Structures are given as structure tokens and as C-alpha cells.
Amino acid sequence: MAKIRFRGVHLDFHTSPLIPDVGADFDAEEFARTLKEAHVDSINIFSKCHHGYCYYPTKVGTPHPSLKRDLLGEMVEALHRYDIRCVVYTSVAWDELAASTHPEWRQVDQEGKFIGRGPLESKGWQYLCLNAQEYIDYVCAQVEEVLTLYDVDGIWYDIIVQHSSGCFCHNCQKSMRAKGLHIDSREDRLVHNLEVERKAMARLYGVVKRKKPDALVVFNSRMRLQSNPNKGIRPEQEYMTHFEIESLPTGGWGYLHFPVFARYCAPLGKEIVGQTGRFHISWGDFGGLKGRAALEYECFRSLALGAKCSVGDQLHPRGKLDSATYKLIGSVYAQVKEKEPWCHDAELQADIGVLVCEETEGPIPLFGIGKAVGQDSDEGATLLLTELKHQFHLIDRESDFSRYSLIVAPDRVLFDEELTQKVRGFLRRGGALLLTHESGLDPEKRDFALAELGLQYLGPSPFEREFVRIHESFDSLDPSYDYVLYERGSKVKLKGAGEVLGKAVHPYFNRTWETFCSHRQTPPAYLTDEPVIVQVGQVIYISHPLFAMYRKWGYPVYRLILQECLQRLLPNPLLRVSNFPIQGEATVLKREDQLVLHLLYYPMGSKGRIDMVEDCIPITGVEVALRTPFSPKEVRTVPELENLSFEYDGKYVYFVVPQVKGHQMVAIGL
């Protein structure tokens, strides 16, 4: 199978049957030439959209009623003539036409109502059930037809999901009972969801590979973090030729979504594509065009995290690409093309592994949009470690811990016997561990699973908000000040030897309708001996949900606390960067005989309900210390090929990057 290309476009074409002139202005030569001039080298084009209509002369499905040409076929022929790879999109669980003509294929909620868009609603889509075998037969037949008619490079399946509440259609009720699952159990419904989704994926993958073994296969809407790897994407890798991470920052995913999933996917070993969009907001945003600085940041950040780029667009119903859109994409992809030689086969390096947070009861957001329980902790860890310029992966309990010097278990990672033994072995081999809040407790939350820590769990803190007084050894914080902890933490007792680095300061009382003082939390009353931060050997425990608190409240003190703890646990990190803004990002990738440092800085601010990137502000004199086992042969900026002077002390190579204007790469030859 060919390597994934770097400069992709995902071209939506969800087109109402009421549109009268579909494809009327399409010119295949102009279409392909516009993409080529914008430096696009791969594209996802469409066979069937969410409305359920096809854009080629199908005998299986239903052509769009106003289409008078083989739009898909003309695209494929012209794209290949310009050496642009084309993968064909088809919508699965959203198909308005199939849902309207075959209501027996619909997903059903526990009240017996159809899931998705209602009869008088204009927002959303009707859900088809992946357990409706006649419908899956129909999708398979459509895909086989496309692969027979056209020499395409792959199939891109969208919306491979059962609704997170579970499906109560007659097919699902029947199969759940046959498997001994209880339809009134949410856990059983989620188990059944996974079985149904993965069975459909196996069929849909098989129909492609039997017809074209070297084809690319993508299943969208599968990205999710699970502390139990069997519930996540790890077992689904066999159905994916690579990972594509749909993540439009202004479309509900946010700017932290992509790095979370890129850092989780990186150690799994498959190629990664980061999919953003050209839209100001999200999909279907006709007339909405983001600024160049934002698109640069999103594409260059993909490169910095070891991924390829894809930009989402939507073709106008008449079939003509917007010149302004491809002028924008071309201005960014011209730069990506120059950077590519130092991005091929580049692996994201890490000396810290961050265990994904424990899932708990609660709503599961679809497609990564919305907040899952635990997501604040995963995103908070990603944000904090990025701001501190540390190199890290997100991992699960099946990951290889030996790759890391430090394991971080943020806020709510419960330790069963298997994980306890794995962590114990990691510590025995010289690794370090950082635990916060409920992490490290046994699954029943009775006590800490690692008894050798000498910590006793006494339950949740009785205070909604309390304070911490920091040990004087924390140079960046004032040991006389009582810093607020904005979320309820855990109450613990130190039974054995250990160094208390922060003690709890209790308020006078919790804030209630009867007991309150001033505008917010009650002020601190008295210092206690209760540990908030404690170090036992190579383990540091923090009693409050530091990572979720930072994601929610953004209190810089929490970053300073983490920084002080990491200096103790990881005194020789892979990378140190100074004279670079907090929002600046730094990653290290390894390829062939060189390390490639990515430095990225685009300031971000909020407008309305979305985060905005609008400026590219140069930063000069960025100081770098990179740990390497031996002295480099050369250090130079790329693609500019400017040699930088450097020093090597036997452990670190030191150099100064003269300027970072948005994104700067530095190649360190080994």
C-alpha cells in the first residue's frame, strides 16, 4: 500500500434533492487543474452523501434527481491525469433517502422514537442502524459498484456509529437477547453497540479489500479515548489502513481535540492524517472562510505531531470550486510541500506517557464534539504538558511503558491488579510516576492499589474548595500564600516515609445558603497536616484533580505546581525550551538519522463562541537544549538550510533558533 500523501482535501457534497442544477458548471479539467495549482496531491470525493443520493450512474442506489452526468467518473479520470490520488466517500449511518423509504432500518431510542432529525426539524440527520443487515448489504453493494466502475485509490466511510444511548430497534433487541444482553442495561447496550459497529466495519472493510487489496480504507467517527483499550480504537486498527482525525477546531472539536488524539495514535504505529476545514465555523459553512494564519497553524501543527494534512471543503452544487478557497489552501500547501522532506516517516518522540482518564457513567459525545466525562483531564494534561514544552504521548494500559521515563495518571485512573503490577514493574526498573486525585486507587476506591506508597485514602475532601500552602523548595511559588484549589479533591493520610510538598489549608466552612462569606469561596481558616502534594521516592501524588482544574479554570499556579513536580521526577527531560511564549509549542520527531524539532507559535484568542487564530507574530532568540546520546554532526533550520552554531556537553545539544515566524523546523543530524 502506498504511503499517505501530505496535502489532502476532503470535499463534501451533501446536496438536497431540491437543488435543480447539480453539476451544471462542472468542468473536469478546470476542477483537477485548480487542485493541482493549489498543491493538493490527494482528495476525498463523493459517491453518496448524507442526503442519500449518488453522483454517478448507479444501478444500486439512486442518482441525484438533477444530476445529468457521471460526476464521480469525470472527477476520477481528471484527478488521476494530474497525479492526484482520489479516495471515494460514502455516508453510512446518515442516509436521508434510505431512512425515509425504509423506516425499518432506523435507529430507535428507548421510548420507541426514531433517533435523529424529527419530522418538523431542520437540524441534524436521521440515523440508520448498522444492525439492519439489509441496509449494510445495500451499502456494500454500492461500494462494490464504485470499485467495479472506477479505478479509485480507496474508500472513506463516514458516520460508523450507533447512537450512544443504544438502539432499541427490533433487530437490536433480538440480537441483544440472543447474546444474553439486557436491553435495560446501559452497559450492555454499549457492549452491543461496539459489536454491531465492529461487525459492520469488518463487512465494509472486506468488500473493499476483496475487490482492491491495496486500497486505502478509512472509518470516520471512530476516534475516542477509553481507559479500557478493548472499548477504544485499538482493536479496530485491523480495519483501518491509517488514522484520519476529523477535528475542525472552530466546529465544536476545539483546538485541544486534535493534539489529544494525535498523541494517542502516534505510538500505535499507523500513519495519521489531521483533518481540519477551510470554514470559519464548520461543515456546510458556505461563505465562511478562515484566515491564512489559522489554516497555517492547523496544518503545521499536524506536521509537528507527525501527521499529514487534510482540509475540508464543500463543493458548490453546480460543481465549481471556489477560487478564494483554493488560493488560501494553495498558499499554505506550498509551504507544506517545502517542509515535507523532513516530515516523511517522522515519529513523535516522548519521554512521558499520560494514561487516558477513566471513563465513567455519563453521556458519550459523538464524533468528539461535546464533553465526555474525563475529557477535561485528558485535555488538561495535554494543555499543561504542551505549555511546559514536554514531550509526551497519551497511552492506555496496553501501551509499552518501557518507552517512557515518567508515567502520568491524571485525576481518575483506577488501578486494577493488572495495571498495578505493570506500574510496579515500571517503578522497579527506575521509572517515575505522577498521580493526581483518584488515580492510583483500586477500582472500588477503597484505598491506593500501590500499598508501598504509604498513603491511605480517606475519601473525598469534605470541602468543595480548599487551599494549598506550598513547600519552600518550590521556588516559583510563595510558601506563605494559600493557593485556592477550585475543585473538590481527595483526603489522604501519609502513613509511611515521604516528603510533604504541600499541605491543605481548610476554609472556615463550605459555601451554602446558610453559610457563606463574600462573593465566592470562603477564605482560608487554618493550616493542617493533611498532604495535598507528597513525594514518596520516585512517585508524587497530588490530592486534587490538577489537570481538570487547569482545563476548566486556567489558573497558572497549577502549571507552576506541575512544573516543580516534574523537575523532581524528570530532571533531564528530552527537551528544554526558553525565551518562547507559554502558547508556543515544541515537539521532537525522529526520522532516519536525524531529529527534527518543530517550534510553533500562533497566538490564540476567543471571539464569540470560538477560539480564533489571526496573527503570526515572530519570536526571536529561542533557546533550545535537546538531549541526545552523542554530539550531532550538524544543526540547521529547514527548509531554509541555515546552519546554526551549537554546543554539546555530553548529554544535551544547545543552540539558539534566530526566529520562529509561525512555524520553524530545525534538523539535528545524528
TrEMBL record:
Occurrences of domain Beta-galactosidase trimerisation (ranges): 388-543
Signal peptide as annotated in the record: none
GO molecular function: alpha-L-fucosidase activity; beta-galactosidase activity
Annotated GO biological process: fucose metabolic process; glycoside catabolic process
Domain of life of the organism encoding this protein: Bacteria
One GO CC term on file: lysosome
Pfam family, one: GHL6
Name this protein carries in UniProt: Beta-galactosidase
Lineage, opening ranks: Bacteria, Pseudomonadati, Atribacterota, Atribacteria, Atribacterales
